[in-house]
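Researcher: Please translate sequence to structure tokens.
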Amino acid sequence: MRPTTPAYSLNPDTELMELLDRVANRDASALKALYEHTSSKLYGLAVRVVGNREWAEDVLQEAFMTIWRAAGDYRATLSPPMAWLGLIVRSRGLDFLRRRTADRSGVTQELDDVMAETLEGDSPNPMDTTNASQQAWALHQCMARLENRQREVVSLAYLRDLSHGELAEQLKLPLGTVKTWIRRGLEQLRTCMARFA
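Model: Translation complete:
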């Protein structure tokens, strides 16, 4: 569901409250009008919450399904309509991220751990600019030492945040092979990164 730009500027609260009242009475045209008036701003909020435009579209769609069901719960005395709508979008966005995190493998966390192990030091802020660029250089050197397919699997898992199953499907490889390559790749990275610590 792509956001739309409002056809005309609205008298914010009054008009949105009226639309929410109509949505509460199952008026589909009111939901469409509400969407037209608010989707652009709410989409922007969804993008900020989930950090991805495509995911934000899904979140916005879920949010409007929730608004359709919950419009009767809106109380103007408790919050302005945009605040209430924004809260629903934020909530759906966080739910989306939780589901996604639960579905994905621990590969990203493992690579983060490899990086964190090499960043521990005496300085109060190990992620200063110099240290960060040294770590990036070290990671690049260590990644280059991995076998091509192994490097590809680890990179995709980390950079694109793909699960083992998604990687196996995308690369047309058996799931066991993908898991083994990732495990061995991370072990090699951990050993290699330790030399740069």
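Researcher: Any highlights?
Model: The first helix runs from residue 12 to 24.
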